[in-house]
Design brief:
The structure is a single chain. By secondary structure, this protein is α/β, with parallel strands linked by helices. 26% of the residues lie in helices and 24% in strands. It is built from 12 helices and 16 strands. It has helices at residues 39-45, 94-97, 128-131, 141-144, 150-160, 176-186, 200-208, 223-232, 251-258, 279-282, 299-307, 326-334; strands spanning 2-6, 12-16, 28-36, 56-57, 62-69, 81-84, 122-125, 132-134, 168-172, 192-197, 214-217, 239-244, 259-267, 288-291, 317-322, 342-346. Strands 3, 5, 6, 7, 8, 15 and 16 form a 7-stranded mixed sheet that branches. A 6-stranded parallel sheet has the order 11-10-9-12-13-14, with helices on both faces. A 3-stranded antiparallel sheet has the order 2-1-4, with no helix packed on it. Helix 5 (150-160) packs across helix 6 (176-186) and helix 8 (223-232) packs parallel to helix 9. Keywords: Metal-binding, Oxidoreductase, Zinc. Pfam families: ADH_N, ADH_zinc_N. One of its GO terms (molecular function) is oxidoreductase activity.
Length: 351
């Protein structure tokens, strides 16, 4: 089969790899229908994910069709269309029983990081019954594509932010994760969602789609100005909850500065360098910090929200490329060419 592989030294290439086989009783082999590129794939290529293994097929956000299952899999069958979580998890360990599947002792973020991922024609999915969710007949593949990662992250971020009806939540970053977070935050019925970014077009999209009530273009603002802008929208207090989904050079500091005292600050972003936590500067704010990565065990819940029309991710789709052209897709995605948000990778085409 064809697959996109990174070598651990910043290089990626399409290679011919053997089709995966069932290795454990709980495995499923999935034929990939659609996949996509995530910023965390770029972090792996850049060497910013120390646990990532070289010579691994990239990708962890996809939908597909079950081709084969292991002997202990009874809830899935060949022919089932499935969305797949970015995290594989056993469902039985100390962490899984508490919903903390990112830290599953046998799984977590493995696909495309430590085991072969989905930017290929086929992929082996461990713990398939926990990791896969059947796509209902009235939900298209494209509508379910982002549920396993960015929508999972948005739902998780909104949940751990402890949003309440009537609150004000600030989301830093109006990229794919930030927009997905706004979609999920709206379900908690906040009074205001404030979107902050340095890209005016992304902010305009958030406003046009009704995902943000207020937007702040921070491209020409220092942190003091951003903080003042948020305070002006919150009766001088700051945001009740903040979700940091940008991972920029100053967005961690922005997150705690724009939060009101006793707020929850969720760090959903990944950083490619260390961040400073200046406790002496925030003393007395009594903030609660909650950090990633996502516990992506909410596929059934978000699938129902898509089925009921309460989450619509169509605005995130920018371009489509066949697997043949995935190298070009990566180039365009990293360059944010034509203001792209998400690239959809379709199956390999015979040419």
């Amino acid at each position: 089969m064809k697959a996109l592989v990174h070598d651990g030294h910043g290089n990626i290439a399409i290679e011919r790899r053997p089709e995966p086989e069932v290795l454990e009783p709980g495995d499923a082999i999935v034929r990939v229908s659609l996949s996509t590129i995530c910023t965390s794939d770029l972090h792996i290529i850049h060497g910013a994910v120390p646990r990532a293994l070289p010579n691994t097929v990239l990708g962890h956000e996809f939908v597909g069709v079950i081709e084969q299952v292991g002997e202990s899999v009874t809830k899935l069958a060949p022919g089932d269309r499935v969305a797949v979580s970015c995290e594989t998890f056993c469902g039985e360990c100390f962490y899984c029983k508490r919903g903390w599947v990112n830290n599953c002792v046998q799984g977590g973020w493995e696909l495309g990081c430590r085991i072969d991922g989905c930017q290929a024609e086929f992929v082996r999915v461990p713990f398939a019954e926990q990791t896969c969710s059947i796509i209902p007949d009235n939900v298209a593949d494209e509508d379910a594509l982002f549920l396993g990662d960015i929508v999972a992250t948005g739902q998780w971020s909104a949940e751990i932010a402890e949003l309440e009806p009537g609150c004000t939540v600030a989301v830093i970053g109006a990229g794919p994760v930030g927009l997905a977070t706004m979609m999920c935050a709206k379900l908690a019925e906040p009074e205001h969602i404030i979107a902050i970014d340095i890209d005016a077009k992304r902010l305009a999209l958030a406003k046009e789609r009704g995902l943000a009530d207020e937007t702040i273009d921070a491209s020409q603002m220092d942190l003091a100005a951003v903080e003042a802008a948020v305070r002006s929208l919150t009766e001088g207090r700051g945001a009740d909850a903040v979700v940091e989904a940008a991972g920029g050079s100053n967005t961690f500091e922005m997150a705690w500065r724009i939060a009101r005292p006793n707020a929850v600050v969720v760090i959903a972003a990944m950083y490619e360098g260390p961040q400073t936590l200046p406790l002496h500067e925030m003393y007395g704010k009594n903030l609660v910090f909650k950090t990633g990565g996502v516990d992506a065990n909410n596929l059934d819940k978000t699938m129902s929200l898509v089925k009921d029309g309460r989450i619509d991710t169509s605005c995130l789709v920018s371009k489509r490329y066949p697997l043949n052209d995935i190298l070009e897709a990566y180039r365009a995605f990293e360059a944010r060419e034509d203001d792209c948000l998400k690239m959809i990778i379709t199956p390999w085409k015979k040419r």
